[in-house]
Amino acid sequence: MRSGFIMLDTIKRFFENKLAQEVAVEQALGLNKTDLACAALLIEVMNSDHELDERETEEFLKVLQDSLKVSDEDLDQLIELAQTQSQQATSLYEFTRLINDSYNYEQKVLLIENMWRIAFSDEHLDKYEDHLIRKISELIYVAHSDFIRSKLKVHSRSS
Q1: C-alpha span between 29 and 75 (Å, rounded)
Q2: Is residue 116 within 8 Å of 56, Cβ to Cβ?
Q3: 81: nearest Cα among 21, 132, 11, 16
Q4: Which of 37, 61, 73, 135 pairs as cysteine with 98 (C-beta 3.0–4.6 A)?
């Protein structure tokens, strides 16, 4: 019975240390959990078509710099942290809940627009990208008309 308590204590310390490291990185980058959630969702869009294109990566970096005002030297750290968050997430709800709690409607629409920027950056909109952005849009309560408007706006710029 004693070994069970030791195991639980070890697991608890592991997660406390992991959380402390993530908080330290967030503070060093001047970001919060919502910013990381946005970055993780953008990574989800990039990965949704199972083909990572260099143009998508470039657009992702531009979006991070434009919307989160991340410096060049902090980008790698942010990407690494967002990828970790994305891989460890069990559902989109973890990210969309943070966005719903923190973002106003205009910020949510801008997030959807940024997702379209990444999806259209390789000049091919994959059905999985479209589906994921639609699902996220619904989860963060963006009206369908704004979802379509942002899609058309980004598509017309990329054509």
Answers
A1: 9
A2: no
A3: 21
A4: 37
- pLDDT one-digit tens code per residue, 106-130: 999 999 999 999 999 988 899 999 9
Read off φ and ψ for residue 115, nearest 5 degrees.
Answer: -65, -40
Which residue shows structure tokens 């001047």? 30
Task: Count CB atoms within 10 A of the CB of residue 29.
Answer: 19
Q: What are phi and psi of 124, to 5 degrees?
A: -150, 120
Long-range contacts of residues 125-131, Cβ cutoff 8 Å, at least 24 apart: 125/155, 126/48, 126/49, 126/51, 128/48, 128/49, 128/50, 129/45, 129/48, 129/49, 131/48
How many whole angstroms separate alpha carbon 135 and alpha carbon 33?
21
Of 108, 116, 99, the closest CA to residue 63 belongs to 116
The C-alpha atoms of residue 77 and residue 83 are separated, in whole angstroms, by 10
Residue entry with tokens 């710099």: 65
- DSSP type of residue 71: -
